[in-house]
Each structure stands twice: as C-alpha cells, then as structure tokens.
Write a structure and sequence with these properties.
About 25% of the residues lie in helices and about 20% in strands. The protein is of the alpha+beta class and about 60 residues long. It has one domain. The protein has a two-stranded antiparallel sheet.
Length: about 60
C-alpha cells in the first residue's frame, strides 16, 4: 500500500494499469518511479531493466499471448 493511492487496476488483456491517486499526497512522478522499480514501464518512465529481466515470462511484454 502506498499513501495517496486509492486504487490500482490492471487489465490483463491489454496489460495497462490505471491508478487513482490524490495529487495532494503523491506526485505522478513518484508513482511512475515506484512502478518502474517493480519492473514495469509507467508512461514514459522505462522499467528497471534488471528487475524486468527477472519477471516471469507472463509478466513481460508479449507474455501470455
């Protein structure tokens, strides 16, 4: 759980996440950095490459096709 984020959904078909957050508590850049640190791309913030390589194949781009 992250302060300021009230909802986080991922559409597994499109592999797109949607975040509902309070901008007065957390900035978009901080959310993008946190998502990147988990190995995923967030808007124009690239995924951490080392973390990405360690993700299961189903969680990588093109996985579960």
């Amino acid at each position: 759980k992250v302060d300021g984020i009230s909802k986080f959904d991922v559409d597994l078909n499109t592999k797109v996440g949607h975040v509902t957050y309070k901008a007065s508590i957390i900035e978009l850049a901080a959310i993008e950095k946190a998502v990147s640190a988990l190995g995923y791309q967030a808007n124009n913030t690239e995924a951490d490459p080392i973390v990405y390589e360690n993700l299961p194949d189903c969680c990588k781009i093109g996985g579960m096709q």
